[in-house]
Amino acid sequence: MCGILAVLGCSDDSQAKRVRVLELSRRLKHRGPDWSGLHQHGDCYLAHQRLAIVDPASGDQPLFNEDKSVVVTVNGEIYNHEELRKKLVNHKFRTGSDCDVIAHLYEEYGEDFVDMLDGIFSFVLLDTRDNSYIVARDAIGVTSLYIGWGLDGSVWISSEMKGLNNDCEHFECFPPGHLYSSKTGVFRRWYNPPWFSEAIPSVPYDPLVLRRAFENAVIKRLMTDVPFGVLLSGGLDSSLVASITARYLAGTKTAKHWGSQLHSFCVGLENSPDLKAAREVAEYLGTVHHEFHFTVQDGIDAIEDVIYHIETYDVTTIRASTPMFLMSRKIKSLGVKMVISGEGSDEIFGGYLYFHKAPNKDEFHHETCRKIKALHQYDCLRANKATSAWGLEARVPFLDKQFINVAMSIDPESKMVSNQFIVVLELLGSLYMLLYFMNQIKKDEGRIEKWILRRAFDDEEHPYLPKHILYRQKEQFSDGVGYSWIDGLKAHADQHVTNKMMRNASNIFPHNTPTTKEAYYYRMIFERFFPQNSARLTVPGGATVACSTAKAVEWDSAWKNNLDPSGRAALGVHLSAYNAETPLSNMPSKVIDNIPRMIEVPRVAIQS
């Protein structure tokens, strides 16, 4: 991911202002270590820190149209740029960069071209002919972007908060799927898919349609002129991304440049669930696998850097960002500049464990819509900034516009978990247990979370993954890297935040008051880096259990006393949401004896 910074209409075209813009732009240099560019037109400044992925030789920014009257600074990837170039036959392109089409599309279509872009992006476009400008952000908010306003009437745009927080009177997150035009001075939503209204869809589930849509989403993200790999936790989502990439890489332009041997990367504490599962998937797919270990102390030592780069005090995001932050540094040291990751699937398919308690398909669908709309504040923010901190780009095929349209048009009844399935498909480490459960459950009636995605890639003739990986239970990233990670964070916070401090929390932090010592600890660090009120307002709040929205907490009254974003907070949900015809107490002892430690329920409790 690149870094963009723009100061527009500041009524100051002095050398001192230019120096200040350059200084602020350098705060984003970690995002784009390959090139720094700045274009000034009167009192408008467009700066860019480039991470070169496509056309590294000539794609430096800012970019221009033929006569340089239109200037663009862009962070992102436009996957359909070759098709768009064919529509612009009367235009001459200066570079081979995928982002070079933006200025020319503006010339042809004005402000209405944004929906033509298939990709992830944040950009500022300045039309020097009338000094007007537009700013736009991609549909879901995969790329990060902030907007601020100065007392002098200036408008500021930055990929990260640290590029503008000290110079703006007010700033906020730039809303995903929106365009801001200087001609109107207001935001306009350019992304208007059918699912956005939250009307209940009714398209019947077709596994092959879903499979093709996701394969296409992965394949288009293989567009790169530099070495890349896949993030592989061993869970369903990242494993499918890796499997599809390995299957189709050989026939791409990328393979001609860098070979068809796929590299995969995983991070975790020693003996964590993710490390073991990822190792198995990598061996199955034949990837060159890189396994990175960290200790709880390594993670704790990195917390301040993580909060500075991620720019949040949200507990879940910090827990998950830290291992990703540490892993990204290792990946970049190997010369890799882009990775493909599995974010977004749980929001689209209701993969979080609390979805087991959705009272009906309407509530299930509404919650998936709420989760997708909020991704830019959580998983997208993590994936973007944890990797960008080290000059690494993360691409997320589950958040492909076309794929989301397909997945969100399916009748949500198909996505809901059946009460005939047992969560312990994670147990299927032996053929005996596999046969036992498959005999107990009808394939189309027993449904684990994200069943429709699993079923779409359950190919007997040309399997994508081993069965027990394809049906591995959901693990949140901060849990899967090792359960002692979260326990260690809580213990560390307990040493630094006293009970007396917690009693005064509502007075010190009246907005989004921290309710745990861990949350208080993160908030103290955040406020030191970003003390402005605008900064604290960029972070969402509200009650949550296992990553739910506040609205979904209402599904079960018991959750109000167990508000924790970890997936383990939903273990009661997890066990009670699946009711087999055979009681747990009547299961063969071999099955019960093999329930993994990650479930964290004593054997005697299971038998009782």
TrEMBL record:
Pathway: Amino-acid biosynthesis; L-asparagine biosynthesis; L-asparagine from L-aspartate (L-Gln route): step 1/1. PROSITE patterns: GATASE_TYPE_2. The keyword Nuclease does not apply. It is an enzyme of class 6 (ligase). Residues 2-185 form the Glutamine amidotransferase type-2 domain. The keyword Plastid does not apply. Pfam families: Asn_synthase, GATase_7. Keywords: Amino-acid biosynthesis, Asparagine biosynthesis, ATP-binding, Glutamine amidotransferase, Ligase, Nucleotide-binding. Its EC number is 6.3.5.4. It catalyses: L-aspartate + L-glutamine + ATP + H2O = L-asparagine + L-glutamate + AMP + diphosphate + H(+). NCBIfam families: PRK09431.1 (NF006949). This is Asparagine synthetase [glutamine-hydrolyzing].
